């Protein structure tokens, strides 16, 4: 749990070690943490949508290049 705390909140393990297991569990069960997770998921979805759009554009440009290469 302390490692998760360090990863999610950018705290060093020494600081994380100062919290009890019960407090860490309450933190991960809290509404603000749930909101933070949802926000991170939404950010990841936005990035994936942008990557997918770029991928589609690259495929489209590739198709155009193939058509242009076949022209006399």
Topology record:
Layout: H1 2-9, H2 13-17, H3 21-29, H4 31-70
Q: Which bin fits the share of residues in helices?
A: over 70%
Query: Element order, helices and strands?
Result: HHHH
Largest sheet: none
Count the domains: 1
Secondary structure category? mainly alpha
Q: Which ranges are low-confidence, i.e. pLDDT below 50, for 5 or more consecutive residues?
A: none
* First-last Cα distance: 65 Å
Computed CA radius of gyration, to the nearest angstrom: 23 Å
Outline: rod-shaped
Strand content: under 5%
SS element count, helices: 4
Q: Got a strand count?
A: 0
Q: Calculate the mean pLDDT score and round it.
A: 91
Descriptive report:
With 72 residues, the protein is mostly helical. The chain has helices at 2-9, 13-17, 21-29, 31-70. It has one domain (2-70). 86% of the residues lie in helices and 0% in strands.
Task: Please outline what is shown here.
By secondary structure, the protein is mainly α.
Write a concise keyword list for the protein shown above.
rod-shaped, 4 helices, mainly alpha, single chain, about 70 residues
